[in-house]
Design a protein that fits this description.
By secondary structure, the protein is of the alpha+beta class. A hairpin with a 7-residue loop joins strand 2 and strand 3. It has four helices and eight strands.
Length: 193
């Protein structure tokens, strides 16, 4: 499958005391200081949309959402263009999401109020034509997803297709053996360059 519009969501731990709007000045500073290894352009505030995209750090090749879809706060990395080759596309998407989450956890301005869970991840393909939300799409991607999950989780994990036929293809990866973000990032090769 040649899909390249990939999304990875890392959920915030329940009880995180941060609203998406509180991250706007931090994300603007990240653009100014070029904290991320890609061209970031602007920050958009969609926090007025209930259980929606929250705040978006808009980039040339990808966007990062402080997302509240389904009422669950988290970081959602969304690749739009310039994806790496098929062999690296999944690990690249996860590395970028993990990198942003680890930077936010260590952000001094947040005073430790935002922590991310490492026992559940959401993977989606933002292309209904290339990847309809069907069992056939899961079967085609299963070997690639299982290989990534084995590397990321360093042990058993569970893959479960999410959503319905009208939604984006999605898979929840659950991992009973929790590890911190830096360990997970290290298993995938470290922060993106």
């Amino acid at each position: 499958m040649q899909a390249h519009k990939l999304q990875v969501k890392i959920f915030a731990q329940p009880g995180s005391g941060v609203t998406p709007e509180a991250l706007i000045p931090i994300l603007h500073r990240w653009i100014k200081e070029r904290v991320l290894p890609e061209l970031m352009i602007d920050v958009a505030n969609y926090a007025h949309v209930p259980k929606g995209p929250g705040v978006v750090l808009i980039g040339h090749a990808s966007d990062t959402f402080i997302d509240e879809t389904d009422g669950r706060l988290g970081i959602l990395h969304n690749r739009k263009r310039a994806a790496p080759d098929a062999a690296d596309r999944l690990s690249d998407a996860f590395r970028r999401a993990l990198h942003v989450a680890s930077l936010l956890e260590r952000e001094p301005a947040l005073e430790g109020k935002l922590r991310f869970a490492t026992d559940e991840f959401l993977f989606r393909i933002n292309d209904r034509l290339a990847a309809p939300n069907t069992d056939e799409t899961l079967a085609a991607l299963r070997p690639e997803l299982e290989a990534l999950a084995a590397l990321l989780c360093a042990g058993p994990s569970d893959l479960r297709r999410t959503g319905d036929a009208k939604g984006l293809f999605g898979v929840t990866i659950t991992n009973p053996a929790k590890a911190d973000l830096s360990t997970l990032l290290g298993r995938l090769g470290g922060p993106p360059a």
